[in-house]
Amino acid sequence: MSASPYRAPGLLIDGQWRRGRSGQVLTVVNPADGQPLDTLGLACARDLEDVLASAQRGFDTWRQVPAHERCARLERAVVRMRERTEHIAALLTLEQGKPLAEARMECGMAADLIKWYAEEARRTYGRIIPARAPCSRMDVLKAPVGPVAAFSPWNFPLVLSARKLGGALAAGCSIVLKAAEETPASVAAMVECLAEELPAGAVQLVYGDPAEVSQALIASPVIRKVTFTGSVPVGRHLAQLAGQHLKRITLELGGHAPVIICADADLARVVPMIVAHKFRNAGQACLAPTRFFVARALYGDFTDAFAAAARALRLGAGLEAATQMGPVANARRQAAVRDLIGRTVGQGARMIAGPAPDKGFFVAPTLLADMADTAPAMQEEPFGPVACVTPFDTLEEAIDRANANPYGLAGYLFTDSARSIHSVSARLEVGSLAVNGVGVSVPEAPFGGVKDSGHGSESGTEGMEAFLDSKFMHYTA
Ligand code: NAD
Fold first, then answer.
1. Is residue 193 annotated as a catalytic residue, yes or no?
2. Domain 11-253+454-476 adopts which CATH fold?
3. How does DSSP classify residue 207?
4. Considering only CA atoms, which residue is closest to atom 40 of ligand 1?
5. pTM of whole model > 0.85?
6. Would you give the DSSP letter of residue 122?
7. Any residues with CB less than 8 A from the CB of 432 and at least 6 apart, and which?
8. Per residue in 156-210, pLDDT tens?
9. Ligand 1, CB cutoff 6 Å, lining residues
10. 261-284 average pLDDT score
11. Annotated catalytic, 252?
């Protein structure tokens, strides 16, 4: 066992932290050195029965708490999160691998998300519809949908859990979160901040066999809403389960973000910005820029400048102050990214990569150039530190080629031409588009994808709406 302060959490069931009844455990591993950190107890079917009963009680209690008070309690939880940032961020770096500065930033972003939703709780207005007859009145009321089952992944464990926790709790729902087993402690430390302010059962946290947990929760009549962030295959599976039990579902399933760099772009400004954004979290971000379509006149200069900046990144353990990029989060991801690079190079791509440490789950920042749009890395989501670069001749061609992919989450455009901005914003099939910048996700705006990237939105008023039902009231005097 590591000598670190790391401790895997228990399960939060009905207001109590406890080990799973089955005694089954998983080992949590530090991706920077491949060494075990601790063992995590898993929930069994009997634990989940307790969870569901408590989720119903928690909902019955929490929905009665006035929106003003819900807001105040969530805001107090946010203050605790901010006070505990150093602790939460260190856990996140140990179990996920990202540099400590990024872990601190993620903790801040998760707090911002919950804070925004907390404020939004006081603005869940219904509406009054003009009446059809004298002495009558028509209202639309908003009501929390009910207990929520939420599934979050390991790449941004805090932010992607906070999007679900904040929305559900602000709306007045109870929520059962199954976060990723690979990164359990940072999420538990965040959930603890919430649990200290909320009635038992309003928020619960479980770890277990993902397929068993999702099957049990989604099939239960207690659960009224499902929300998942993760891969397309698992999203399809959960959508089927939700359909079978007629549950509302929100899905955020990743992306393969196009970046269109027009001939008038200023590479001196674009390259440092996009390289930092690309390799943040070792590229394991659903919104990471991955397919770079570069105007032919800039192709050579862009490729050289990007490769030089990528090679200069300092790789290492996230707790080391000099580290700019950590390992990928697990051995599975390392193998998958290396396999994707190998298959793409096998089809003739030119590969430019720097060195990477040989212990732990590191993958060197890698640029793949001069390949066909049908090459594996252009088609499959890399979800790692891999960028593909290809030249284009006309903007229409770049848009068509960018759209020729099943994903549609984020997109990026660099140009000063109003005409180009208009064309791309009208035609590019994405849920978010950043022009001359990289900001595609903020708490107050909807975040979600089209095509295989999922459906529904998180964050923004749309994200809150996902946890609300509308009830029509027609009064006649
Ligand atoms: P995976 O498909 O095995 O799992 C993805 C996530 O879903 C994990 O958090 C896992 O715990 C959970 N999961 C798996 N089966 C489940 C089930 N039956 N019910 C509920 N949850 C379940 O993939 P992985 O190896 O963990 O990640 C690889 C791929 O996942 C990446 O290539 C990427 O496409 C995708 N991914 C996307 C995001 C995102 O932000 N959209 C985040 C993480 C992973």
1. no
2. Aldehyde Dehydrogenase; Chain A, domain 1 (3.40.605)
3. -
4. 286
5. yes
6. T
7. 287, 409, 410, 411, 440, 441, 445, 447
8. 999 999 999 999 999 999 999 999 999 999 999 999 999 999 999 999 999 999 9
9. 151, 153-155, 180, 210-211, 214, 229-231, 233-234, 237-238, 252-254, 286, 332, 381, 383
10. 98
11. yes
